[in-house]
Amino acid sequence: MTDTTSAKTAHRRHHWRRDVIELAAVFTAVAVADAVANLIGHQPGGPYLLIVSALALAVTAGFHTWWARRHSHAPPPHDTTGASPAPAPATFPSPSDTDTGAEVESGAGTDTGTGARAVAGAGRAQTVEGTALWRMRTTVRDVPGSLAVVCAALARHRVDILTLQTHPLARGTVDEFLLRAPARLPARELGRAVSTAGGSSTWIERADAHDLVDAPTRVLGLATRTALDAAELPLALRQLLGRCTIRSLPAVSATGRRTGAVTPVEGVLEETVMRLHDPSGGALTVERPHLPFTPTEFARARALVELDARLGPRVPRGAQVLTLPEGNEITVRRADPTDLPAARAMHDRCSDQTLRMRYHGPVQDADRYLDHLLGPRFGRTLAVQTASGRLVALGHLLWDGDETEVALLVEDDWQRRGIGSELLRRLVALAIEAGCESVYAVTQASNTGMVAAMRSLALPLDYQIEEGTLVVTARLDATPVRSLPPYEQAGR
What is the pTM of this model? Predict the structure, then answer.
């Protein structure tokens, strides 16, 4: 006989006893009520006293019910078999909803939750279909027990804490959580619960599966990428610090003027702005207006920059040989500052019209941009050379703050042979691998070659024309990641 069968038998065996007890209690209550009514009702003002007593009992019962529902700590009920209730189908928000953050101050925030049934209570794992991942950061007082109060408030809402990081401050501590919460729990209610528990400056945004990697593993992975390729440093900083804008400012501009971008070796931290010393000259500026940086984040970023400085200039080696339709072989590879003389020689062979379409300025200033473009700090550059070793084309993928620009330059005698389209396809593959959501190209409206190359990508395109300048933006978020060329894979 199973335990479930025994429980049901015992339930039937004692069912009549419970009925007898309840019936006796009802008769006793009626007798007591009749005695009290006869005793008070025959006195002066007795009926009024009975009415006031009934109202007082009703108010007391209503208050007790409200208080029990608001402050109940009981776990969710289960059936006699111990099984949890089946989850209802979950509805997840669109990508545009899940990527936005909500800052919550004293319980205020943005409701981005979606309807779904909670599957389990506090301390019990919840199914993925009925839950949502959140990243939350809040500041608590640096006193014993303050973090425990916040954790208890999350547990009451059936929120599972997956990871926790602490960022000590001069006053208080910033706690960063990765949470798995019921999908129907909105950000506003989650922030209100944390604020009531003592958290302040609470910030919440939706998370995804990539955030499940623990912090040490993620930092080691970013350090490895930076060690293999100097162009990875801005991308590594962006992944380390979340949604932020990173700008690399050289000490001397492309026109030869000093920019004044001088930063101390130890760096500068100013709330939402972080300035790091660039060993190659200039500064790296990181901005995150929606969330101040902590000293812990500043130390991590500075360590990553120091690693890059100690390793010096480096570019992954490797090349791939392609055959053009007419039978000529070309080699595509990564370019670096050592290609500067060959790039200047290519400039000399290009017509003024080709240089003007590429650089959108005086032709005599074209050579000044090469130091910037070939430097790995500002992006990645692909070079195309012939079998004889002559450089005939350059393709640039440039980190422009939180956006990404693509630019092409093909020598006149090698145009209309598919080199530009091949370079652009590879640059877009690199952008997708780097996690870029879009790339844009700035050219002239009369540059039909660049427009045709962008259209050949078969991506959603946006066009903007202002005073003869054409900006074509390709959205990459709806595009599957393409495999990298062999020479890029070999360099990793």
Answer: 0.56
